[in-house]
Amino acid sequence: MPRKPNTDCRRAEIITALQAVIARQGYEKASIQAIAKEAGLAPGLIHYHFKNKQEILVLLVRKLADYGQQRFEQIAAQAGSPEARLHAYLEARLGLGEGAAPDAVAAWVMIGAEAVRQKEVRDIYQQAVAQELLLLTALLGECLIAQGSDAGKAAELAAGLLAMMAGAYQLSSSAGSVMPVGYAAHAAKTYARLYLDAVPTA
Amino acid sequence: MPRKPNTDCRRAEIITALQAVIARQGYEKASIQAIAKEAGLAPGLIHYHFKNKQEILVLLVRKLADYGQQRFEQIAAQAGSPEARLHAYLEARLGLGEGAAPDAVAAWVMIGAEAVRQKEVRDIYQQAVAQELLLLTALLGECLIAQGSDAGKAAELAAGLLAMMAGAYQLSSSAGSVMPVGYAAHAAKTYARLYLDAVPTA
Amino acid sequence: MPRKPNTDCRRAEIITALQAVIARQGYEKASIQAIAKEAGLAPGLIHYHFKNKQEILVLLVRKLADYGQQRFEQIAAQAGSPEARLHAYLEARLGLGEGAAPDAVAAWVMIGAEAVRQKEVRDIYQQAVAQELLLLTALLGECLIAQGSDAGKAAELAAGLLAMMAGAYQLSSSAGSVMPVGYAAHAAKTYARLYLDAVPTA
Amino acid sequence: MPRKPNTDCRRAEIITALQAVIARQGYEKASIQAIAKEAGLAPGLIHYHFKNKQEILVLLVRKLADYGQQRFEQIAAQAGSPEARLHAYLEARLGLGEGAAPDAVAAWVMIGAEAVRQKEVRDIYQQAVAQELLLLTALLGECLIAQGSDAGKAAELAAGLLAMMAGAYQLSSSAGSVMPVGYAAHAAKTYARLYLDAVPTA
DNA sequence: AATGAATGAGAGTTCATTCAT
DNA sequence: AATGAATGAACTCTCATTCAT
């Protein structure tokens, strides 16, 4: 009778440990030894469960993307109007309120930075960005339709909003102390509101 | 016969070599060895001309910031109104037109990403961001005053615009293929235009 | 099947290797590479077992100090009077008799010399000297009390004796061939004897 | 007409620069670059005037030994009795009074430490020690003869005193803060006085 | 599955020495 | 004589990865 494999749970533990270390100390400090220590495991075990360090990172990106998707879906389910859903989305991504998961945000920023550096991370990151872009476009499209406008402008606005979000994330980590406090959610909402208002209604 | 000093030009060469390596391979790969090879120099010589790696990076950031400043001033010189100057600025930063210097942009993005990872780089990067925020705030303040509005809103808008710019930079390197082509300059101009219009005039 | 830890013995091996290299080639030549080679280990392993080179040296100093302490205690155990204990001490430190451990003496001298050069080594060395000074002062204090004198003069004599011992050590390594053979133990005993005799009894 | 060579003076300057750097920062920090900077010369010039770094050190040792010899001769010339000469000597070597030349003492200590490490320095250092031993023996011999004793014991006492002096020097640099203030001259004088008194007169 | 020791390449940095000018 | 750039080897230390147990 073979012993029950615990690989899945160990892998999850390790991924979570990477997230924690990245959020706390940055990717540079996230050595295998550090991850192992965070997870309370022996260094050698990491490479038993993962081919290499890269693989852990890839799976972490996937996990974070899934988490963001789920969080939005939760919020969106309770929203009555398209615009309420949009606000819920922006609040979920940029707000400092409950469920803000700074750990996940910090890790996400680190990964965004890492995507600039490593092709393999970049490939994964791009998929997550593309998915996010689709989601945001759909959200904005609904808003436009609800106000009787053409949904075609949604893509353009979505790209701008996404850039603003990505920038707010990055700057929160790289230059947080020189930016105003809590500007991001407000700026994004304002941008969206003004833009939507400016689109002519049919 | 004393030998003629060539430190200044060597230092410039080394800084340029760092920029090239960063743009091509990322900061991670920008080892002293790599910089030396790129510049065609012996590794030890790098440390003859610079105290440490950090110092080269600081000067590169300064160079890039100066370059951006100059490019803006060139364009702005021909601008008649505050708004024209603002457009010139956004075009200089985000536009794909002539003088776009993809090498410099790439290096800048890499440094921004590295700022997320390393405190030392972050410290340098923050200064540049703070300076940029000041410049942009002043620019927007002029626009507001020109239209008879209170300049107080400039800071808020500047932060949002800067985030959008930083995000556009980062995404151009980390997820360029999934973003619309050339959206950034347009989105930023639209955002600014709408925002300025919405501010009540005295 | 977890692997059995061997850290303790490896650390001891490395410390011993440092002692051997120092005794044979001096501290200057005691590079991590040299230590590793002496111990028959890979260089990287040294840093697996020790945080840095400094830590090895600290532990070596401690080991040598402990060794000296033990040797003294062994000899002193058989001593009946304070003066006999003092002689035992001086013999343990300066004598050429059995258990003289030239390896340890050589290492100690090298470390003393290095203490002159490097602040980090100096800090360690100072602690050992301070401890030795205390021990010697106590020993001399007992002698003074035993002869009915005031123990207050012990500190002064201890300092002089310690200097003589340190000098004898240093000269044995740096100018051994020009000094008389085995003068040190005799000179120290004579100095102590004359000094003690000169202190007035109550 | 050949230009007048200034080699001798340049060499002296460089040796003095080494002494200054050693006294201030220790031998370890006494790189060629540091010496050159201290002397206000170009690094390359050092190797024009000296074959290598070692050679400078050797000449510095010689200079310091000569200086010590001269200083003693000056003092001795004014001393009336052998014992006065001895006191003058010990004061000249260990005292903190005028003409103490802490620069020279510090450099001398560093060199003593270096003699432990490097054979070439050791060879030079030994000669200086031997010379010193002879001088001190002669001095003590005169004292013994003056009091009608056999001068044969002088060598033994000289060795002990020299060790004490060397140790006081070394400890002043390596563990100065844990030793009593100004103990050395007093201890040496006491040692000598007691010893001389103990030698039977004819 | 798991442990933890071991490896070896590569990082930044220092520096005695050489060399073109 | 003198300059100062240039070299290259050596240093300490880090770390992804492998391996014996």
UniProtKB/TrEMBL annotation, chains A, B, C, D:
SUPFAM superfamilies on file: Homeodomain-like, Tetracyclin repressor-like, C-terminal domain
DNA-binding region: 31-50
Domain HTH tetR-type: from-to ranges: 8-68
Keywords tagged on the record: DNA-binding, Repressor, Transcription, Transcription regulation
Protein name as catalogued: TetR family transcriptional regulator
Taxonomic source organism: Chitinimonas viridis
